[in-house]
Write a structure and sequence with these properties.
Layout: H1 2-18, H2 22-38, H3 42-55, H4 66-80, H5 85-89, H6 97-104
Helix pairs in contact: 1-2, 2-3, 2-6
């Protein structure tokens, strides 16, 4: 278990270090996060995920409280006002690869 994940983490870090741009390294970061998590390094996995999401311009707040949660839920509720289940079912699929990778992370 530990040896395999260490090798994976080492290889993935090499891919990330040699990537030409951030977009090229997204899949490698996803693999790194999964490898860290599966090897029991859950906090390191979360830290890596937060770091890459910040680099991708999707920062997460360091402190989450009831007001932040309430505000996010209200924003979602406002966005969905007037939409039916059918609207959501037939909503266009996401096609931007960077956005898809960001969601996967």
């Amino acid at each position: 278990k530990g040896g395999d994940s260490s090798e994976i983490i080492e290889c993935v870090n090499e891919i990330i270090d040699n990537a030409r741009c951030l977009e090229d390294s997204c899949k490698a970061y996803e693999v790194l996060i999964l490898a860290l998590y599966s090897s029991g390094k859950k906090l390191m996995a979360v830290d890596q995920a937060l770091t890459i999401l910040r680099k991708l311009n999707y920062p997460f707040p360091s402190q989450v409280d009831r007001q932040l949660t309430t505000d996010a839920m209200e924003t979602t509720r406002e966005f969905m006002t007037g939409l039916s289940i059918d609207d959501l079912i037939y909503y266009p699929l996401m096609t931007d690869e960077l956005s898809i990778q960001t969601m996967r992370i």
